[in-house]
Specification:
CATH class: Alpha Beta
CATH superfamily: Vaccinia Virus protein VP39
Shape: elongated
Radius of gyration: 15 Å
Number of strands: 7
Structural class: alpha+beta
Helix content: 10-25%
Strand order of the largest sheet: 1-2-7-6
Number of helices: 3
CATH topology: Rossmann fold
Length: 126
């Protein structure tokens, strides 16, 4: 455990979405706690526009059980995993304790745009 307001910045890239919402919310609080005043966090989470969310079984509104049969797709290595996805409202809810929330998108499409990885790049300021 780090002391309160220890860091000027935090990077959390591609980690949160492999956890249940309870741990994601706990991580959001911890990131807020360890950031200094005016500190910045750079977070990447999966969007509900991502092909894994669109094409898989929903466990809840934002949670999916990955089941990919195509070995050439990146989700094949995630088979059997639960994954948590975000829309902009969920990003704002989970990170509501931050003073400023900026939400941008990044899309990487494959095979003539037939499917895509879609993420939110979230910049948070305490």
């Amino acid at each position: 455990p780090y002391e309160d307001e220890k860091f000027d910045g935090v990077i959390c890239y591609g980690v949160l979405y492999y956890n249940p919402i309870e741990l994601i919310e706990k991580a959001a609080k911890e990131i807020h706690r360890i950031l200094k005043k005016d500190g910045v966090a750079y977070i990447v989470v999966r969007s509900t526009k991502d092909y894994r969310y669109v094409n898989n079984e929903k466990i809840s509104k934002y949670e999916v059980l990955v089941n990919e049969n195509d070995i050439s797709k990146s989700a094949f290595k995630e088979n059997g995993m639960k994954m948590y996805f975000f829309d902009k409202d969920e990003v704002k809810r989970v990170f509501s304790n931050f003073r400023q929330i900026e939400i941008n998108s990044i899309k990487i499409s494959y095979i003539n745009d037939s499917f895509a990885d879609e993420n939110f790049i979230v910049i948070l300021r305490k």
